[in-house]
Structures are given as C-alpha cells and as structure tokens.
Give the backbone structure.
Amino acid sequence: MTIGSLIDTPSELTDSSSSKSAIVLMTRIRLARNLAGHPFPGWAKPAQRQKILEACTEAVTATTAMKRSLAVGVDDLGELEKRILVERHLISRELSGSKQGSGVVISKDQAISVMINEEDHLRIQMLRAGFQLKKTWAAINDMDSALEDSLDFAFSPTLGYLTACPTNLGTGMRASAMMHLPALVIANQMEKVVRAVNQLGMVVRGLFGEGSDASGSIFQISNQTTLGESEEEILKRLSGVLQSIIEHELNARARLL
Amino acid sequence: MANPLKCDLCSKPATVHLTQILDNKVHKVDLCEDCAQEKGVTDPSGFSLADLLLKASLNPEASTESGVRCEQCGFTPNDFKKQGRFGCPACYGAFKGILDPMLEGMHKGTVHSGKVPQKALERKSLYDRLTKLEGDLSEAIKAERYEDAARCRDEINQVRQAVGQKQR
C-alpha cells in the first residue's frame, strides 16, 4: 500500500481556504484514548501491540467518517512517504520512528487521522484550515463517540481518560492553532508573547510541535493542561488567547506598514 | 539554623528557593546548588517547574513504596522514573501515592470535569452486574436454594438482553 492516492487527492489543508486563515493557518485538536485492560504502547509486548493495532484499525475504519480511508502500518511506509505524512501533520515524528505494531488511518479528505500505538493506543486528530475551534471540536467529539460504540476506553471518574503520560490525563485533549506571526517576530515581540501565553497556561511551540523550531514565523499555540476543566472551558480559554494574539499581530503589522 | 530546607531532588541542604506563579497558583521548589545548575534554573527560558515537580516527587525518599508493583502489568515506580510514562491504565490505581503530589502542580485541577464515555461505562456496569449474578447463581445452586437460583437466572437473562442491545 502506498500513499500515492493521498498525494493526488485535494486535502483539507492544501485546498480549502478561509478568509481568516491569513493569521491562523490551521486548527487542530487531538484526543488521547486507550483501551481498558491493555498495557500502553510503550510497555506492551510486540504481540500485544499487534493485537491492539488490529482491534483499533478495525474499529476506526468501520466508522462512517472513515469511509474510503487509508489504513497503513508504519512498517509498510517508505522513508519518503513517512516524511510526506509528517509534513502534512497526518502523523507525528514519534510515530514515524516507532517500532513494529504502529499504524495510522487517514480519512479521504485528510482532515482526520487516527494514529495507533503512538504514545497512547489511539491519538485521534482532526485538522481544519483556518481558525475553527468549535467546528473542529464538534467533529472530533462525534468521531470519538462513534469509536466508543465498539471500544472500551480506559476511564476513571476522577482522573478522566487514562493516558500513558499523566500530563494528558482528564480530557486527553490538546487543541492547537498554527499561527503565522511575522510582524510580531520582526518587532521582536515574540518573547513577550510567549511569556504571556505561558502565564495563561498555554504553550507555544514550533511548526511541528514539541522540540521543533519556528521556521517561517509559524508557531503552534496549544493548551498545556488537560485535567480539571471541561473541553469547552479549555477551548474557550484558548480561543481568548488566540484572539488577543491575532490582535497583537494585526497591530504589529499596522505599525510596520 | 534549625531544620534547614532540603533539596527536593537530592536531599542536600537547599540554597536555591524558587517560587513560580502559574494560573494564580503558587509552586515552590527548594534546590541545592548542584541540582539548580543541572536543571538550568538559572536560565528561566529553558526551565519548567512542572518537569521538576514530576521528578521531585519521584526521588527515592519520596517513593519509599518502591516495592510496589502494578498487579496488572508488572510496572514499578522505577520504570516510571526511567520512562516518564505509565505501563497500563491500572498503574494509576497502583501508584496513587506517587501520582497525587505530582498532579497538583501539573494541571488546573485534580478531578476530571469533561466528557464521560457514557456508553462504554454503561456497558461495563452491565458486565460487572452479570459477573456478580453468575457468581450468585452458582452459589445458590450449590446451597440448593433453588428459588434464589431461579431469580438469578431470570435476572441474568434480562442483563444479557440489555448487553445485546448495547452492542447493536
């Protein structure tokens, strides 16, 4: 199986445009989910990983959102193919370098990708061009509920969704916006913005997430905490922060021009 | 100096005292000079208190229960120290003592208030009920309490039906 068909198909990120996308290029939400009663991918034995991969792939491809999707094991991908998927934000760098028994299911329009046996059993991810936190959440929430029909997720009433790393506990949700902020960079204000954003409990990262640099003045801003607040509360907070960054960027642009 | 503060990481006397305010919550860490250097506390940009708290709560002194092992997957606190991730969902119950202090600095709160997988939970409670009823049934048969046994059997059938509907 190759990803040739994906490259030829119009995708959410490359082909949809929105008037507001001048600053917020892309909205992304991911949910971390694990199957109850199974070891997390990093601790599971190869046979267990394989079993989890099969069960998850079956459940994911059976959902209506994943009709005519592409399901592929990471082992079956060539180096170049992996790089294309990472560039399109459809798989993480961690997944592209993972051991046997990992895979990904990608929807036809490349808006949804579900990574299997990355850090958690399931990393459900939804991408939308432009600034669309609400729509993206509604869509990924539906996808998650559809998977719940056939999979038993590890969940505790007090700690929420149980994840391999305690930093993702609770909602298991990381919502982020990819922002193009050239004027703030030129005006040397990014450091100030990063500090302010951090104080509000949000994180600023480079283009490809953790540990990547902000090439081309593109930054990813996302929520840091996942436990103690509902998804809607987190999104509302993030949205407020993003709005004020947009304002600052517009002001900085006005001063430059 | 009575009762000097100890380093949160290595228990040597602490000389660096750090206070960070995150989301209006105050987090305090005391460190010795070596650990402060090593953790880059002197360089505020590359320093995250959350990371530090995570490690601080894992120092050998704090986790005296290092003999604990997750019954489900065999994971130990030492493994967590190495990987920074747990072994399986049941680890959260097994290592509660290590987890609780860690969570306080990590998130906005310590109790989940978001989405609940309602369907999966209902399914689980039905399965639990079924297991219990099956136990009751065999006990009743053993004790020759046939009326109880019949009642259990009827209830089991009802629950099985409900499970079947949930799976559709």
Residues 118-142 of chain B form the longest helix (25 residues). Strands of chain B lie at 16-22, 25-31.
